Amino acid sequence: MINFSYLVFIIKSAFFDFSRNKVRTILTSLGILIGVFSVVLLMALGLGLKKYIEQQFQSLGQNLLMVLPGQGFSQNGGQGLIGGIQFDEKDVLKIKRLKNVQAIAPFFTKTLKIEYKNKSQITTLLATTGDAFKVIKVEAARGSLFTNADNEKSAKAVILGAEIANKLFGSGEKAVGEAVRIQKERFIVKGVLKKTGGGALGSETDMRAIIPFRSSYFLNPDKKFFAIYTEAKDAKSVLTLKDDIKKTLLKRYNEDDFTVSESSELLNTINSIFSVLNLVLVAIAAISLVVGGIGIMNIMYVSVTERIKEIGIRRAIGARKFDILYQFLSESVILSLFGGFLGLFFAGLIVLAVQRLFPAYLDFGSVFLALGVSSAIGIVFGVFPAKKAADLSPIDAIRYE
Known about the structure:
Blueprint: H1 4-20, H2 22-58, E1 64-69, E2 87-88, H3 89-96, E3 101-116, E4 119-128, H4 132-135, E5 140-143, H5 148-152, E6 157-160, H6 162-169, H7 172-175, E7 179-182, E8 185-193, E9 209-212, E10 224-225, E11 227-232, H8 238-249, E12 258-262, H9 263-306, H10 308-316, H11 321-354, H12 364-390, H13 394-399
Parallel strand pairs: 4-9, 6-8
Antiparallel strand pairs: 1-11, 1-12, 2-10, 3-4, 3-7, 3-11, 5-8, 6-9, 7-8
Helix pairs in contact: 1-11, 2-9, 2-11, 2-12, 9-11, 9-12, 11-12
């Protein structure tokens, strides 16, 4: 049993040896430092990304249902948005008549150029109804949003995302009331959306332009939709409405032609994808920890060779095998922990710096893993040189030149 005073003596001996060669001590710990820094930082960014996605979906509420072509984002492994069918106004009208529907928003999309005077920007245009803004939870920062009445009378109104308004007009204030051209058709900017950075329409929401669906027939003569978003009256009726939508669409289409997904299903699918991706990235970063461990083992072997005579003298005056073993093993563990703490410290500084822009954060698991792995590396890679030192014959060690 190792008592406390003996442990203190071993640690003091280790630090005394480190002080004799400070540069080598720092360089030896550098490999562990880089490894722990990489692993912890990637874990923090992965946790931040997961939190960011959850925040985006929480803003949609729990009542959103998305009717998508193909297998959509279903949890049974479907690839989604590949193949399937295109929806039309008949589908929208039938779903709209269902008793648990609070609001419905069909979407047609097309990538094109939007122009203002001598400026132009590539945008993903969305054509939809006035209910869309309620369903996807976006608001106007300037001007106003078009309504269902605007859609019915095919109003030539366009709502711009915050970023595209800034690029075309310099600011959202200057955009409202101005005329832009979409495929040579003249549209008046009715409003500019608040900056979102994501949301139900994806990461490019701030670069999108939105027009009434009935004003888009020059782009969409077949009057088709790529998706239909529906809001249920309350959280309790979501599953019922989901089943009703399926039954309604199955009267026209096959089961594999479409998917009705809850926002939580999409969130779970995206989170599972990012969890696997984050695990792969952390595993790649962990390779540097192994490299750092090999570096510690090499340096400890060198240290054993340099201190053979010292080991022989210590054995001659009464030091036991396990005293030598503990001495060199403790040095290896302390080097690893030193690198681990420094890596954790620098990763923490980076996380604090990026938190203003991105919700990265450290959790207990990250800290425990960093220090636990660095300790384990010190033990695993320190055992071999420590055992070599302990197995030296006292007489041969004293005679060693």
